[in-house]
Write a structure and sequence with these properties.
The chain contains 14 helices and eight strands. It has 285 residues and is an alpha+beta fold. The protein has three domains: 71 residues, no CATH class; 87 residues, no CATH class; 75 residues. A hairpin with a 2-residue loop joins strand 1 and strand 2. The radius of gyration is 23 Å and the shape is flat.
């Protein structure tokens, strides 16, 4: 009888020998790769994790998003659907880039084709923005793609206002990106249009940010910890309060100084102004 050879998986840079190791190093894209290569199933089999083997074998779906959701459930991991969407979108883009690079190699890197494809890829991004204009998690990945691959073109785009004026959540996604936000902030047409009745849109008409939107209302005399310093946030609106970063407590900023600045902070502590009810809305970056 042939001897079963055990092998380790590699997740998050660590060797995975047990289910506990797998859960502690559960990187979505890496687990998905092992699943698609059948290595995850083989690893479970040689280590006699029969319960997990059965559940993984019962996955009957070719859609990466659905597969990842089931894997997250099988291994009792806590992952938001938005996190899974980000991973799938990023993997899809990377795969498209590999195909494109291979095509360039086969065509001896013809200069005009590269230029045409580069511009086509840039214009395609705005179609994707339109298709995902209400999906903040996907828009954040799209912005990361722009930063990585199209930053110079995005910065010089003379038709930016026309391209983005109707996409409020995309504008906010760009404001979350410290390397691209100035493109929006320095464009007077975009900002003037965006800021018109901005407070009202957030609070009354209610741009639907779902669970992404965080807020606090109330009067509090002492400093209240709202976000730890490792949590980077974008301030959308603040009233009747003073705020600061946990690691930079000597720098306190009044809400009146924050209006329309869309500041990015590392963590958040808040204190109400005397005898005033504070109000703040923000998003995790």
């Amino acid at each position: 009888m042939a001897k079963t050879i055990k092998f380790n998986l590699k997740l998050n840079g660590n060797s995975i020998r047990t289910i506990e190791d797998l859960k502690e190093n559960f990187v979505l894209e890496e687990v998905l790769k092992y699943y698609k290569e059948d290595l995850l199933l083989r690893w479970l089999k040689v280590r006699n994790y029969d319960e997990y083997v059965e559940r993984v074998e019962n996955i009957n779906n070719e859609d990466d998003f659905e597969v990842l959701k089931q894997l997250v459930n099988i291994f009792d991991m806590e992952q938001d659907d938005s996190d899974i969407e980000k991973i799938i979108y990023t993997l899809k883009f990377e795969e498209e880039q590999k195909v494109l690079l291979e095509d360039y190699k086969n065509n001896n890197f013809q200069k005009q084709q590269i230029i045409d494809d580069y511009l086509s890829g840039y214009y395609q991004i705005f179609e994707e923005i339109g298709e995902n204009s209400e999906n903040l998690s996907k828009l954040k990945v799209i912005v990361s793609n722009i930063e990585k691959n199209y930053k110079d073109l995005f910065t010089m785009d003379k038709f930016m206002y026309r391209r983005v004026k109707n996409y409020i959540k995309f504008i906010i996604s760009v404001l979350m990106n410290e390397n691209l936000r100035d493109v929006i902030i320095k464009n007077e047409n975009i900002m003037n249009d965006f800021l018109q009745n901005y407070d009202c849109r957030i609070k009354k008409e209610g741009i639907d940010f779902g669970d992404d939107l965080k807020s606090f209302k109330g009067n509090i005399e002492y400093w209240k910890d709202l976000e730890e310093q490792d949590n980077k946030i974008l301030i959308l609106y603040a009233k009747n309060c003073v705020i600061r970063e946990p690691k930079n407590r000597e720098l306190e900023v009044k809400s009146t100084e924050l209006k329309n600045k869309f500041e990015i902070l590392n963590g958040l502590e808040l204190q109400s102004l005397p005898d005033k009810e504070s109000e703040i809305y923000y998003l995790e970056v």
